[in-house]
Amino acid sequence: MGGSDLNQPMLKPVLIKRLRDFFAPVPALAWLAGILCAVLIEYQWGDALAVALYLPKVPPLFGATLVLKQPLLFPWAMLFVCLVYGVPIVLIGRLTAGPANRAAAALGRMPVWVSVLLHLLLLYIALHIWTETSDYRLQVAKLIMIAVMLTLSLNVINGYMGEFSCSHPGFMALGAYMASVFSLLLFKADRVFGAPVLPEAWGPYFFPLALAAGGMAAALGALVVAIPSFRTRGDYLAIISLAFMFIVKSAIENIDAIGGPRGLGGQPHWSTLPAVFAGMSLCIWIINNFVRSTLGKALNAVRDNETAAEAMTVNTRRTKMVAFLFGAFWAGVAGGFYAHEVRHVTPGGFGIQNLAEVLAMVYFGGLNSVVGSIVGAVSISFLSEILKPLLLYKWIVIPLILILVMIFRPTGLIAFRDFDPRRIVGPRR
Amino acid sequence: MRKWTTALVVVLAVVLAAGLIGCGEKRQATIKIGINAPITGDIPKVGEGTKYAAQMWLEGIQAAGGLQVGDKKYPVELVIEDNEAKAESAVKANTKMITEDGVLAIIGPQASKQAIPAGGVANDYQTLMISPWSTNPDTTKNRPYVFRGCFLDPFQGPVVAKFIKGEFGFSKAAVLYDVASDYPKGLAEFFKKAWEEINGPGSVVAYESFTTKDTDFSAQLTKIKDSGAEFLFTPQYYNEVALIVKQAHELGFTQPIVGSDSWGSAETVKLCGPDCYGLFFSTHYAAAGAQGATKEFIDRYQKKYGYVPDDVAALTWDSIRLVAQAIEKTGGLTGDLKKDRQAVRDQMAKIKDFAGITGNMTFTEEGDPIKCAVIVRISDKGEFEFYKQVCP
Amino acid sequence: MAFFMQNVINALQWGSFYALIALGYSMVYSILMLFNFTHGDIFMTGAYIGLGVATALLALVAALGWSLPGWLLLVATIIISMFITSLLGVLVERVGYRPLRSAPRASAAITGLMIGIILEYGNLALLGTQRLSFPELIQTTTYSVGSVYFTNKKIFIVVVALLLMVGLHQFIQKSRWGMAMRAMSYDFPIVPLMGVSLNLIAPLTFAIGSALAAAGGILYGMAYPVLDPFMGILLGWKSFVAAILGGRGSILGAALAGFLLGFIEIFTTMVFPSTFRDLIAYSIILLILTFRPYGFFGQAHSTQLRL
């Protein structure tokens, strides 16, 4: 007995190391197979299992929503999650590691995009089956993916370039309105714009165009912030961007053609799961490549020391311009997705509250980090969803968590990390 | 080591046993009603009123042993979801209540910003939703499953315009409203239209606006005073009313100030004080002169929560009773949610002359109620006195 | 002319609030190089503390049966609340900013933002959702010159705001503490090596800033007597604009920029339709910054973000 107490501090690292060694040879492909299996199990037998475990329904978000509402049910939900997700993912992941590694190696000989696409396809199928069981789950998943895009695009400016930009809600609003106007004008009989120009059935094929239009509008707006940033930076830029946000909100309120302060509604429901998933994947892929490119490194150089960067032949103006337009573009695209998911946008919805949320996601997840942005957006959205039963106290708990994270990890949970897709999809030892 | 394992096993066993006992009860068919309220976010007061009114209603039902539908008494459960005063949260909350919690009908969201997108969701899932407070026409437009509990702006604007013309005979009006908020903007527009129909174009001599959360209206009020307006119409919420009236008086504006149903809160007088005495506004009900069910509601609410309910609470109370009546009228639930929701919606559309505490209601095709308005004068003791009734 | 003068008076009052809040922002910003996003909410808390102190004082005076003049109570309220709120400022510095001194500046800004949210919702949880009305400590008297109207409160507000500004300026320019602060704003890393403890200067800066915010909050409560927990957000962000617009290292610049912002907002409403207020007012700010990229009084410097 006494000995075991002595061993206590050693126990954890040893256990973790063992687990790590155990799972080290599992490639992404095998994990995906496990996930696929788990969601299939849930799809097939989830309801029956839920009934057997006294649950009213399949827990929509891994039972997390039950913790506060019906704590007595929570152990059962945990058991459900273990049985449905934990066991299959671990078992199948580990068991198929061998063949999956060989498959990954074979894929590795092809161009990298083939392998990445295959992985994404598998992930999408898993996600599709997972969201099939519950529309609530589907909606939460979609909104989280939109938040990921938004966070990532802000991280380009605030993290990689090191400015403190407050204009993101403005960019998002520009994108949301532009994309809405595009789709309402062309495809929808609307009070404001009259009869549609093109048949509505064509609409979904033109959705990427609508999104691109939204992104472009946001990028155009970003010029207003980017050009002054040549002469000034840091703190002055923060208020330029803040002023920009107020200007966008006020400008939209004054254009009655797009609904003014009452907002613009009736957008077609085009933000389907495949569309949002494709948008997010593309966004992550492109931003990840962007920050790993020479231009991305130039961004870091500008952030760390502008004068030195200039001396080292970095074209600071071009770098800043590109980063701003790039970040704004993706924020605009995210806004377009948002508008076609919620299907009603008001200028008041893109304000300071929104800004505080995006900032929280970026700094919680980690500065200068693609992985961190994903983690930040997912975890803050998730937290905010499961803590809802706390009502007012939710907004005391979430800030407290954020403050603690900031104190113990000042640059955020996973800072300074982007990923190499080759390593992720590649085989393990 | 073993000690810990034992402890863990014991804890788990206890929790599981508790869980077993907790869920061991036989599941009974309950009627679930969803409440989609802005409990956090920038209008927490609205959320609180919604929640309190709904809970007070539930208490009454529970005391009666449940809701009588056909020959069976069903226990009722409220599913209260916070929409954080955000559009996407309201949409998520509606989806969750409809698909996960299996509610029969939804009350809320209150503000149009959330009610329009959330109404889309309710309509898609063919579930009855009634927004007690949203005045934007888009909330119910082309949505057979969405209703509202308040009257629309096109009605109230002319009521006020006619009342002022008849009462004072003025011909020059000034309007001050919040451009970023749906209700004041709509009402201001309809008032302007109605006034100009009566007095000819150009008779609204000052049409000034501000933005939500503004507190200084001195520049707008200076302009209004300078325009020579004979009275000021300001369809604002009570917190702004207090500021507008006080600042107007400080700037030497002594003409009457007239308001709309959003003034109808006890807080108006509490915050505004003697500055508001003698002013008129149109509303659904007058708290001071209230009689019968209205008075009963106000007294009960005040006793329970310590303050006089505002219009949100009263409208929520009516809405939830409307829903209850629709459920009762179905004459029996099948247990199949889809069918029951349809039945409830159909009964809702058929309701005629519902005796609500905010007036009698009948729904139009669009799901908007038709009801009478009351003109109220704030007495010199700070009470709301019934002055006149105006019906469409 | 009367119309114009009336708006000048309006703008003076409105600008006083921006200026008072901007001063607090500017203190922390100039001396410690931090964005203190809690400041708007400290302003809100200060107003509520003022409400509590005023109510307590009124009750005390009534209990003792004294009859004190209103302005005396008001001054007492302001002084006591400034003191209590400055303690809050010190607490915020200790909890939210000191642990992050070596972290990126933006991270500290985020903790500030979060403490602000906690203050807002803590207030809601504590006092409920009802809006509270600020007690009338002095009776409103309206004076008029021609057709220009002003009240004794407006005069009081502007005078107190100006007094506080002048007082702060004297403190920064003349006292030894002020000298330390100015030194800090010139060269942040060196001053602690000269024997001035950062752990003393930083809380002091926060305390002074918060005290000013509290004074602003009470004056605000007098002018706009409806308090709500979210009242500091918009005012805070706008004052933040004013503080930076004033220029780094210039406390007086912040105050002037605050008044300027007030004047811009009121005068755009005067000239243009009021729906265009924010659009035009902030476009003007944007233009100013395009041509004076370092604010009014700020020296051109390369802000090295400590990332």
Overall description:
Chain A is mainly alpha-helical and 429 residues long. Chain A folds into two domains: 10-111, no CATH class; 135-425, ABC transporter involved in vitamin B12 uptake, BtuC (Orthogonal Bundle). Chain A has 19 helices and two strands. Chain A has a two-stranded antiparallel sheet. The two termini of chain A are 39 Å apart. Mean pLDDT of chain B is 85; it is low at 21-26. Chain B contains twelve helices and 17 strands. Chain B has helices at residues 2-24, 44-63, 87-101, 112-124, 153-168, 182-199, 218-226, 238-250, 266-272, 292-305, 311-329, 337-350, and strands spanning 31-37, 67-69, 72-74, 76-82, 105-107, 128-131, 146-148, 173-178, 204-210, 231-233, 257-259, 280-283, 354-356, 359-363, 369-370, 373-378, 384-390. Chain B folds into two domains: 31-150 and 291-371, Response regulator (Rossmann fold), CATH 3.40.50.2300; 153-283, Rossmann fold (3-Layer(aba) Sandwich). By secondary structure, chain B is an alpha/beta fold. In chain C, a hairpin with a 2-residue loop joins strand 2 and strand 3 (148-151). Residues 302-307 of chain C have low confidence and may be disordered. Chains in contact: A-B, A-C, B-C. Chains A and C meet through helix 11, helix 16 and helix 18 of A and helix 4, helix 8 and helix 10 of C.
How many strands of chain C? 4
Largest interface: A-C, 50 and 53 residues
CATH topology of the largest domain in chain B: Rossmann fold
Q: Can you tell me the CATH superfamily of the largest domain in chain B?
A: Response regulator
> What characterizes the major β-sheet of chain B?
7 strands, mixed
CATH architecture of the largest domain in chain B: 3-Layer(aba) Sandwich
Q: Figure out the total of helices of chain B.
A: 12
Helix coverage percent of residues of chain B? 40-55%
Number of helices of chain C: 10
Distance between the termini of chain C: 53 Å
Radius of gyration of chain C: 20 Å
Average pLDDT level of chain C: 88
